[in-house]
Amino acid sequence: MTLNELKEQVCHANLELVKYQLVTLTWGNVSGIDRERGLVAIKPSGVSYDIMRPEHIVVIDLDGKRVEGTLNPSSDTPTHLALYKAFEKIGGITHTHSEHAVMFAQAGREIPCFGTTHADHFYGAIPLTRYLTEQEVEEDYEGNTGTVIIERFAGINPLEMPAVLVAGHAPFAWGKTPEDSVKNSLVLEKVAQMALGTLQLRPENPPLPAYVLQKHYLRKHGPNAYYGQK
Amino acid sequence: MTLNELKEQVCHANLELVKYQLVTLTWGNVSGIDRERGLVAIKPSGVSYDIMRPEHIVVIDLDGKRVEGTLNPSSDTPTHLALYKAFEKIGGITHTHSEHAVMFAQAGREIPCFGTTHADHFYGAIPLTRYLTEQEVEEDYEGNTGTVIIERFAGINPLEMPAVLVAGHAPFAWGKTPEDSVKNSLVLEKVAQMALGTLQLRPENPPLPAYVLQKHYLRKHGPNAYYGQK
Amino acid sequence: MTLNELKEQVCHANLELVKYQLVTLTWGNVSGIDRERGLVAIKPSGVSYDIMRPEHIVVIDLDGKRVEGTLNPSSDTPTHLALYKAFEKIGGITHTHSEHAVMFAQAGREIPCFGTTHADHFYGAIPLTRYLTEQEVEEDYEGNTGTVIIERFAGINPLEMPAVLVAGHAPFAWGKTPEDSVKNSLVLEKVAQMALGTLQLRPENPPLPAYVLQKHYLRKHGPNAYYGQK
Amino acid sequence: MTLNELKEQVCHANLELVKYQLVTLTWGNVSGIDRERGLVAIKPSGVSYDIMRPEHIVVIDLDGKRVEGTLNPSSDTPTHLALYKAFEKIGGITHTHSEHAVMFAQAGREIPCFGTTHADHFYGAIPLTRYLTEQEVEEDYEGNTGTVIIERFAGINPLEMPAVLVAGHAPFAWGKTPEDSVKNSLVLEKVAQMALGTLQLRPENPPLPAYVLQKHYLRKHGPNAYYGQK
Q1: What SMART domains does its record include (chains A, B, C, D) (predicted)?
Q2: Pairing label, strands A171-175, B163-165
Q3: D131 is annotated as an active-site residue
């Protein structure tokens, strides 16, 4: 894959956020990584989706140094870089402020796995980070947002749980490609919406039995997956 | 009806899921049956609605053997087949993860008949299945999803109650044709949305009086139905 | 106004139900009356909005006898006729199953006037009818739906309160023209949506002070109205 | 900037209300001010957005005297004028009845700052005015709506808090330009929607820690802002 192809992929994935109604104004950004070159392509900061084209996408190295493009990269870039360094198998990251996922992040609640829609994509409850401390906010806010996510994922496989809620903030999702990370953001939003309604119908709703979670997750993602066309 | 016509009907019905906003990504599938030939046409697994055409539709016999088409049929095919075998008068089946119906399925609650919108289409509360046991999940997950639906419908006429909620999962709906089953899925989603709001306004809301349910159902479906153009 | 003009108005108003997202499938109907001729134009029963044209609109007299058109009129026609006879100054009627208005109708709750959006269009809480009795349902269901509305409006000016909730069923709204009645249906739906959210934030929310209700209603509708272009 | 340019800006901003789904029918209006000339351009009263063009925009002076245009200005004009006089640095004002913001206004609750989406745009909880008294309503309803907003903003910088909820009524938002005020209305509506869901998940939810609020607000708005392209 050339760098131009990566920029096209990342631009396309950013525009899919609009198609799936996952963004308001310019809230949201998608990035992708070229692991061989160690380069990350990411949305520029505060640019309208109406005019976004591949040439606007900014390319940086893993230290955040700009390699291609004239615009500033997304202000959330340090979070993306921290995640790419810690989660070595992911290829794309999406950050949104999608409404229902934000509700859970703001309420400081994980999203329990209540059904098979959830289980098809996330292997358990969607984790919630702690709040950043005042010192973490002052010293390196966006970098430390990555830190608290990584801390929360101790012992969790990020490919089996491709999303997180940052407390008081919003979700991040990831995947094997930029497009995958957008799809996981979309599924997360739907799962959050359904979980809210489920809790309204039954506030103490129990999670899905573990054996159903396992079955659904593995029929789509395990070595013997049989969903889709292989 | 030729097999090609059935495939066109089933393709069209699958695309109506998109029109009615009943699906996210590829979650959802519609099938139709040719009772004389004993053949079922169904959506292929994991294919995008953006590119779906009649030639993608897979044709199988009632044992699940592929008769036409090169793609894998929907992974939910064994559930469809079980329902066609048990409910001999239905001609089409739709499975979705529509949001409000899923909320009730996840909360383990039936949808009571609170009003005439419901009564016009479903003759009583929308039934909820039990969870599958661990053994049922391991041995034949999709087939046994059919089993628990059929078990729940003991004594219920599936044409008078053309929908069900599978606990922890999502709805299935059916009808005389594939298109009918899509319409019943749409009505189910609207009825679920209205029931959620009704319960928020009045948690112990009583069901519609039986005589109103009966009147509304029968003015559309009974032998003396007088709704629409005859 | 010619009868053809009335049919065009009624057809246009029915299609506005779709534009304003007030209908699902064929649930909903608008009628208009020519008071001089004593003739009512109304949507045909069960015809898709996708193909509806003025020539499909059915014309009947106030006894329900068809004067023009070959299709069956809406099955709710007897309700429309009862309202035209009782409310002599209204010129159009709309019936929908719009979601939030139905939630209140199903929960058996009036919609209190919580704010100026409501007060701009409805002079007080939206009234709720009683349920029809079993005998009323059996003898003349649609006609008696009109009867319970009229009974509820004893002492209420239907032009100051151009909507009602029928218990366990759905709203009817009306106005000086068919188009007016559609607008009132739309406002009712928005007001219902906002009232639901208001009650979620504050279950015992008090109504708007009477002097604000009066001011808002009269600035749009009283003899000294100063809203809009006169 | 010529007066024609201001009218074009104000017309465009009014049409953005439609694009962002912030208005129903004609509920809502945007104005802009030319501070040098002391002239305000504002939407005409009750004119449909479908046909609105720059030549419909009405120009008035700060006493409300019409300087250009033949239509009546919005009936909310006295509120706009009062705010322009009191908040000397704002350049545009938007009034809507957007659903979720209205829910809080009707419930008489401020919108707490629960997350960074809120903190990015509003420096603390969205203030709520008191109700107008009966005398205030009778003497000068729209002017006194401005009065209670200004009274509530004693000690608050309107550029740091560019929105308010008028009790029992609806929101007003403002900004440096008409377009800015529309964006703040949109953000307010999203923030209100998310806050409602947050409170449903956790009724006693605490506000965002002050140091996170400060960080987020200042990274977009302070002298050292680093969001977007500078």
Answers
A1: Aldolase_II (SM01007)
A2: unpaired
A3: no
